[in-house]
């Protein structure tokens, strides 16, 4: 009788993992019960499957989308990461439709998106570094330029670039940053502030007719570094004209040419490029420099608009220098978020 009671107790109670396994199996059985024996699971959802294939092709072949009509290619590339949001939507529709064909097809855009942007989801930050830099489009209509300047200086950056400076706001920024940065220069609507000596300061012609780019040599404890600050022309999305960016593209090519002729091997570009690293129209710049966010950041690092960042159009790029970390700073009175990076000059070529 004792043995019988023991057996009964074991059969009724069972082990925890076994019961959890039984519950999981029952749940899976309920989920797939509607699919079993249904020959239409392969015929349903053909439209959803087709949309999934098209989405995969758009992401995979985005460089082939022509710019002749409204700069459609650049517009797609600017917001390319957001196309990934369509994947769970298509997945949900495929599940609701109970379509095996659609489910298999959805794997394609998911794989393409992960191949393009999966690396950005990991934290590539490493320790070390010997120079911190920051850049911020402060917005010409910024209601609190003094507070914005203090916020950027609080990042601990050794070198800071500001864009969209107005003549009336420059003295405010100069006063607010004077105690932290001994050296600075303002050229047109862009400026550079540094804790280290600056020489060779000059405006850079980016084919606008007025100054929105500059260059300077900063002599750091690890040697000289060429700094470029740029604010490329804005782009517009218009119903009648599409993604209008011709002037931006012309300026990007001019900036890329100036950087390529720089005699110093170690270079840093700070600024608002009004375009992302995926935008082919910025190839004149992006083909010769590395994004600190892409190389050593965590996540996408979107910087604009500040209220709901959707794209990283503010960039920190380097050549001959090793990025060790890159991040986005808290919101200021601007419509852009400031961004910062720490780099290693000792390991740069």
Automatic annotation (TrEMBL):
One of its GO terms (molecular function) is endonuclease activity. Keywords: Endonuclease, Hydrolase, Membrane, Nuclease, Transmembrane, Transmembrane helix. Residues 134-336 form the Endonuclease/exonuclease/phosphatase domain. The chain crosses the membrane at residues 41-63, 75-96, 102-121. It comes from the Bacteria. Pfam families: Exo_endo_phos. The keyword Transmembrane helix applies. InterPro entries: Endo/exonu/phosph_ase_sf, Endo/exonuclease/phosphatase. This is Endonuclease/exonuclease/phosphatase family protein. The lineage of its organism: Bacteria, Bacillati, Actinomycetota, Actinomycetes, Kitasatosporales.
């Amino acid at each position: 009788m004792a043995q019988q009671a023991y057996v009964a107790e074991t059969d009724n109670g069972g082990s925890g993992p076994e019961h959890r396994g039984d519950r999981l199996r029952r749940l899976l059985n309920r989920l797939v019960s509607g699919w079993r024996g249904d020959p239409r699971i392969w015929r349903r959802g053909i439209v959803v499957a087709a949309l999934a294939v098209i989405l995969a092709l758009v992401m995979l072949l985005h460089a082939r989308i022509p710019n002749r009509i409204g700069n459609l290619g650049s517009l797609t590339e600017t917001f390319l990461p957001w196309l990934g949001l369509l994947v769970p939507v298509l997945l949900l529709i495929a599940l609701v439709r109970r379509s095996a064909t659609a489910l298999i097809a959805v794997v394609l855009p998911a794989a393409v998106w992960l191949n393009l942007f999966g690396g950005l989801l990991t934290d590539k930050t490493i320790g070390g570094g010997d120079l911190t830099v920051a850049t911020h489009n402060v917005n010409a209509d910024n209601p609190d330029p003094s507070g914005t300047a203090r916020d950027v200086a609080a990042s601990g950056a050794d070198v800071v670039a500001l864009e969209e400076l107005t003549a009336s706001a420059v003295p405010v920024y100069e006063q607010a940053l004077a105690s932290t940065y001994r050296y600075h220069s303002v050229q047109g609507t862009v400026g550079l502030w540094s804790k280290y000596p600056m020489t060779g300061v000059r405006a850079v012609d980016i084919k606008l007719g007025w100054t929105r780019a500059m260059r300077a040599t900063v002599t750091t404890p690890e040697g000289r570094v060429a700094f470029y600050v740029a604010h490329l022309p804005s782009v517009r999305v218009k119903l009648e004209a599409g993604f209008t960016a011709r002037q931006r593209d012309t300026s990007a090519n001019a900036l890329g040419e100036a950087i390529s002729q720089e005699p110093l091997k170690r270079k840093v570009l700070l600024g608002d490029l009004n375009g992302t690293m995926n935008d082919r129209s910025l190839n004149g710049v992006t083909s010769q420099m590395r994004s600190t966010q892409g190389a050593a950041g965590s996540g996408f690092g979107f910087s604009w608009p500040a209220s709901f960042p959707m794209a990283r159009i503010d960039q920190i790029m380097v050549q001959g220098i090793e990025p060790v970390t890159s991040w986005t700073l808290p919101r200021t009175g601007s419509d852009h978020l400031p961004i910062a990076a720490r780099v290693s000059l000792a390991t740069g070529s």
